[in-house]
Amino acid sequence: MSLSQDFIKGRGAQQNVHNKFDAHSHEFRDDFLNYCAAEGDEVRDSRTSLIDTFPKTIVNKVNSPDVGLNYSLNPYQGCEHGCIYCYARNSHEYWGYSAGLDFEQKILVKQNAVELLEKKLSSKSWQASPIVLSGNTDCYQPIEKKLQITRRLLQTFLKYRHPVGIITKNALVQRDLDLLKELAKDDLVHVNISVTSLAEETRRVLEPRTASIKKRLQTVERLSAEGIPVNVMMAPIIPSINSHEIMPLVKEISERGALSVGYTIVRLNGAIGGIFTDWIKKAMPDRADKVLHQIENIHGGSLNDSRFGTRMKGEGEFATQVAQQFKIAKNKYLKDRKKFSLNCDLHEEFKDGQLKLF
Fold this sequence. Notes:
Layout: H1 30-39, E1 49-53, E2 59-61, E3 71-73, E4 76-77, H2 101-105, E5 106-110, H3 113-121, E6 131-133, H4 144-147, H5 149-159, E7 164-168, H6 177-184, E8 189-194, H7 200-206, H8 213-225, E9 230-237, H9 246-255, E10 260-265, H10 272-283, H11 288-298, H12 317-333
Parallel strand pairs: 1-5, 3-6, 6-7, 7-8, 8-9, 9-10
Antiparallel strand pairs: 2-3, 4-5
């Protein structure tokens, strides 16, 4: 893997692309760049900034039939992990920012998330249904270590005995093992760990500010050993980058105690097509054209397919081969693992935050 000289290390996106909702566009002019070079100034501010927000609601209804969840909760918008392929990048445009570097550098913090969740769970009209942290951006991204919003959300789920799912690629989830164990006693929690590759070099350039592969596998092993149900997501599979790792990855996570595994195939929707194209030509110039053409072959000649039912798995020979490999891998390594479902039966008794006596 040979990075170009102008590659921005430590970030996924290599530029800020135009926001489709913005009437104005921005570009770096040569005279500005020359001035910065002469003065020894940075062209871009590389620091991460936090922006406090106070939304009116926090639990989102998910209408997509192929995502596999009904409700999601995102304590943060934007994600410092910087995964170049992330479908959530487009959502940053609704806040007035770019789906490129802004998505990784301008993190919106929902300061009233816990209060809104408590209001939701105590509502007389709310019927228990699994709520997933997070359906959009990672609830255990780096700033969570300091702010602990996700931890307080888990305390609220435990208080109301309400089922919760977690999606993350950060080993920080181990910090909350005490809460996860309490929730697991009543089948109230399920953790999805994203492991895109077993190769640390691939992880470092594809997902620059995420936990190392070693730490993620150790997280799968530790949570599983403590009785926390763990599913691993190999998402997304990108041809000629991690598509050769299906069998060894499923074998590895099965040995670590995971109960199941799932996958998606990369799709570059909205602004992500341009962001990914720019990135791969700088990060992997030797194979950029090959990878882009293979992605197009999966989605009928385009980098994206928005059709429900096919957008996550793709079509054609490559998609068929991936599906067959996963079927073989699961039958070989995960065939006898128990099925798991979240418990929705306890919440009604704890709707006021404590067990009803009568």
